[in-house]
Design goal:
By secondary structure, the protein is of the alpha+beta class. Helix content is about 35%, strand content about 20%.
Length: about 120
């Protein structure tokens, strides 16, 4: 279920990028329509090299606010409110980087605006 939720957050963060010609050939994650139906994007901040993340603000089918981001994993890790979770994320990122692997960070926050590890 956590993987499905992460894919949903990536999908919501990327949804409005599709009209850009340079990205139109990149497929979005494929999700069954019952997982996407009812979400309404209310604000979108495209990726830029300063923030190193893309952000989408949405209203869930239940009417709750949801902010989702994807971007550089170290930027996403720094958004966590728990210092131990931040350290664990940075250790994970550094271990993967030491093996030449790349990563993409995905985060969400609910109506309290806090980003927590899940």
């Amino acid at each position: 279920m956590a993987c499905l939720l992460s894919m949903l957050h990536v999908y919501l963060a990327a949804l409005l990028l599709r009209p850009l010609p340079c990205l139109s050939s990149i497929p979005l994650p494929t999700l069954p329509s019952q997982y996407v139906a009812g979400y309404k994007i209310t604000k979108f901040v495209p990726f830029n090299p300063v923030d190193k993340k893309t952000t989408a603000v949405a209203i869930t089918p239940g009417g709750e606010p949801l902010t989702t981001c994807k971007g550089a994993p170290q930027i996403i890790a720094d958004m966590l409110v728990d210092p131990k979770a931040q350290e664990a994320c940075h250790n994970y990122i550094n271990e993967r980087a030491s093996r030449g692997l790349r990563a993409l960070g995905v985060a969400k926050s609910d109506d309290d605006g806090q980003v927590r590890a899940s």
